[in-house]
Design goal:
The protein is of the alpha+beta class. The protein is built from 22 helices and 26 strands. Strand 2 and strand 3 form a beta hairpin.
Amino acid sequence: MSNLGDQVQAALGDAFRVQAELPAGGMSRVFLAVESSLNRRVVVKVLPPELTSDVSAARFRREAELLAQLQHPHILPIISSGSRGGLLYYIMPYVQGESVRHRLEREGMFPVEDAIRVVTEVVDALSYAHAAGVLHRDIKPENILLEGRHAVLADFGVARALQQSQTGGRLTATGMSVGTPGYMSPEQVSGDSVDARADLYALAVVGYEMLTGKPPFSGPTAQAVLAAHLTTPPLPVEELRPEVPLHVSRAIARALSKRPEDRFESAGTFRDALEGREIAPATAPALPLPGRWLRRRTLGILLAVSVALAVVAVLWRRGTGIDPGLLGIIRATADSGWVDEIARLLDSGGVAPDHPVLRETLARFTGRLAVEVEPRSALVEIVRVEPIQSFSGRGFRPVGATQRVAVLAGEYLLRGSAPGFQERMTLVQVAADSSAEVALRLLPSDSALGPRVQVPAGSSPVGGEVGPLLISRFEVTNEEYLGFVSAGGYRDRSLWPDRMWFGDQGQPWDQAVTRFVDRTGLPGPRTWESGRYPVAKATHPVAGITWYEAAAYAKWVGGQLPTAAAWWRASLGAVVRPYPWGTSGTAVHLRANLEGVETATVGSYPLSVSPFGAMDMAGNVREWLADSAGATHRFTAGGSWQEPVYTAGLEWVERFPPGYTSTALGFRVMWREAEP
């Protein structure tokens, strides 16, 4: 258990037994405990000392007493609270379920009915809390828990206590900055006074994300997201998901108004609007932009005409292979320049953009893609990336190797595969009226070392030249690391340095290795128990290991930990840019496991692929590097599931003692190749 875990146990005494620290990533540290008298599981949330130094124990107790009065079926209650040894903590029931964030990460978007029900239930909870004079101030998917089919709003205590520590106010506060960038209202971003309408705004952001699979505001950095809250109008929900009822889309749009006075005046009126009861608008109602409305109207008319011409359609199809109704819609959409919709229509009809009937119409949107693959017998498939929010619903389609195929302009994910060879993926951008060339060289399968990618010699974005190398395609998984443990890796002295450092103390191998044990005292990562990784996480990256353990594993498989120069070349190529996939920060949460809720199966985010085919080099777990930062620290790279998106970039440097462990820190392996 961590040092903080020991402090929490000491503060709780015999009334509770602390079992483990749970993933958090928010404004608190979270521990699972068992209440001794009732043998029930509870959650202990410890507020960060650096943010609560100004909160007296007496004031904290008074605030806890107020929050304990919030008894509502959709609010996670406070069982108890306390302060001891500088720690301020709440004790809450343990919810057997998942958060809205976890479900979004797994499924992309909610069924419409489920999303509306969750938002309505949270609105009920806010209506009750606001009537009691309490704001939440940090509503986000992580703080909405799903217990069965119902929503429970959590972390009132954390948000309110932190607000009190900074302002001392109640329902309104000036200069308040507590919140999460993706869900902060414009007045929170500006540091202005906030009231109940800020909570409604944040809930509308969550509702938008549940209904469309993406947040209404995004950007490559936290600052860009905050700026979007202030200046950028979101696309109407029904534009992205037409089956959403219009009254729901309009309710979300009104709650997302930039000015508080243009939103609903209370949670109750927001709920009425979600349920279809007509509410007088504060200003003109939010309507789709005229251009988009006109396109939808035009498409509707063309659809009606296509039905009327059904008989002609049969004769036309025999000559062209295209339904005339679909042809008319494609031509109307081409007039609007809506390339993503053109792509969707072509896919629905199985039509290529260079079809003789459409070639002239689509010429200004069409480019060429040439793929060379080795071995030549490999299957090459592509899938269009845009619109990225619906990417997971599209499938790969085969294309011929070594020949130029016509594709609509845009970003594509390519996949090469062949029996006896490792799969290889890459991203390519195809511009209109130009050609893009891609070479896919597949490596022979090597089950002993796992999937790897080849990185040719070249310059590194952090400086210097890097020789040719191989690097793990994925982060090392729990299942792979179990092989090292089972083979006696912790007993093989040849894999470890003679002396290891923990803080300022150096210890010989035979003493140091006794530190490397799981929760039950057996050799292994700190996240394991009884010599086994957590259930259902075989293919998740191994975490909870020190730099020494990562380096020993790498040596065991005949490799080494990557140097910073090699790691960043494998991630970005030779170009300085924010992400492995390029410079675009749009919908980062759909490309990489950043700002998530826990680790994910390696390779779950195919759009995170690097130029050389390595996966998850942004997000999932931050990775140990070979480089030293002085005598007592080692560098890491790549950002993790619990970190903001900007931490994946070159400019964000993290270093830790080699004996440090974290649930968000893992590694991959590098092998050097001989110069050709």
